[in-house]
Design brief:
Order of helices and strands: HEHEHEHEEHEEEEHHEHEEHEHEHHHEE
CATH architecture of the largest domain: 3-Layer(aba) Sandwich
Strand content: 15-25%
Distance between the termini: 51 Å
Strand order of the largest sheet: 12-11-10-13-14-16-15
Largest sheet: 7 strands, mixed
CATH topology of the largest domain: Rossmann fold
Structural class: alpha/beta
Number of helices: 13
Shape: elongated
Number of domains: 2
Radius of gyration: 24 Å
């Protein structure tokens, strides 16, 4: 368990300090909500086994959004759907408080599935949290909490024990479920997009791309990490890709992972041929109607150059995120795009977050973000005057680009 996420380590600390009592576990029905399923000791299932070992009558898990698992649920508003008619004596919420869009409804459902007098343990991040520097999946969180706002949300419950770790930006409360479960009428929470406290019965900040697009809805369906529950790329992508949706398009995606985004593209582009490239031979299993799998090492210039034969209208680089690989693909494949073609270079965190990604990612004199910035400068100035090590490529792409858009974690190029 040496790879526990910070919130889970906090729960472990509280466990050792008797926040959880045997009388609340032995012979009781327990539910673990959220948590990590792939990090270190797979904490949520491990906690499930511990509760059973301590004498719980049963213990269930609700897995919240996880791109590794197609059968995961999205957020806390899926709690009732996940468990049906079951009710519990102890509910441990490891995650979900930050990402649940309709947090009042999510809290209502947590109370609904808990017996009167049962316990609901909630852990959440405070406004002091800096976990976005350590965990990619926290980038698109919505809410942060302090003790007062948690108690306001669970206003029908009695806070029995509380704990705060301001050093790591964490707060936890053990609630006792009361008789009533009416939804709180108004509560003020810290909104991460605004960077300030907002009243959640007011109109929330939506931004230009916040409305659910068809592409994001399909991404949620297939549990791709590009969707709004993780990186939140797709509403932005839809802005640029909608014009291709009903056209006979060729799309090339570098990096396959678990095939989720390939299935998303297949549904979103009903007349497109989808090409996925990955070094792993296991990815051949994702071949399907209109989905073509190519096994290739994307650090090999010859193999990357061979991909030009596909002549795609859309290219998405979601492969290794190693700078040399990103630059090789961009320098090699951008030219093959037709006029109006779109090139998307994902996950530039590897260039910009050294505290999260080791030096092995940044294996070039200029990182991928710096190269993109230099290309954007050429496009804006309309003069090919870059003099860096990659000047030939930067000047060529900069003069050929119609538009360069920098979004969170991604650069989108549109060819003239």
């Amino acid at each position: 368990m040496d790879m526990l996420l910070m919130g889970e380590a906090f729960v472990e600390y509280l466990w050792k300090h008797d926040v959880f009592q045997e009388k609340d576990i032995i012979g009781k029905n327990c539910l673990v909500v959220g948590g990590s399923y792939i990090s270190g000791g797979n904490y949520a299932p491990l906690l499930n086994k511990r509760l059973l070992h301590l004498g719980a009558a049963r213990c269930d898990n609700v897995m919240l959004f996880d791109p590794y698992f197609q059968d995961s649920f999205c957020d806390l508003t899926d709690t009732e759907e996940a468990i049906g008619a079951l009710r519990y004596d102890l509910i441990i919420v490891l995650s979900g408080m930050e990402k649940t869009r309709n947090i009042r409804e999510g809290v209502r459902q947590l109370q609904e599935v808990c017996h009167v007098g049962g316990k609901i343990f909630v852990t959440a991040r405070t406004p002091h949290d800096i976990s976005a520097r350590r965990e990619l999946h926290t980038y698109e969180d919505i809410w942060r909490y302090d003790l007062e706002s948690l108690e306001d949300l669970f206003h029908n419950c009695i806070p029995e024990k509380t704990a705060v770790d301001e050093g790591n930006g964490l707060v936890a409360v053990m609630f006792v479920r009361g008789e009533s479960i009416d939804t709180v009428s108004s509560v003020t929470l810290f909104n991460t997009k605004r960077g300030e406290h907002v009243t959640i019965d007011d109109e929330l900040p939506r931004g230009y791309f916040d409305g659910l697009s068809m592409l994001d809805a399909i991404g949620l369906k297939y549990r791709t990490d590009k969707c709004s529950m993780e990186h939140n790329y797709l509403n932005k992508y839809a802005f640029f890709l909608e014009k291709f949706r009903l056209q006979p398009t060729r799309l090339l995606e570098l990096g396959i992972f678990n095939g989720a985004s390939l299935r998303m593209w297949q549904e979103y582009f009903p007349y497109a041929e989808i090409y996925g490239v990955d070094i792993a031979d296991r990815c051949s299993q994702y071949a399907d109607e209109r989905i073509h799998i190519i096994q290739a090492d994307l650090s090999d210039p010859e193999r990357v150059a061979k991909l030009k034969e596909i002549r795609p209208q859309i290219i998405i680089d979601d492969a290794s995120h190693i700078v040399s690989h990103q630059l090789l693909a961009l320098f090699t494949l951008f030219d093959v795009l037709p006029s109006g073609g779109v090139y998307i270079l994902e996950d530039l965190e590897t260039s910009l977050n050294p505290e999260q990604f080791g030096e092995s990612y940044r294996d070039c004199p200029l990182d991928a973000y710096e190269v993109c910035a230099r290309i954007a400068r050429i496009t804006a100035r309309k003069v090919p005057d870059d003099d860096s090590l990659y000047a030939e490529h930067i000047n060529r792409i900069g003069m050929a680009a119609e538009l360069i858009s920098v979004t969170k974690g991604t650069v989108i190029f549109v060819k003239r």
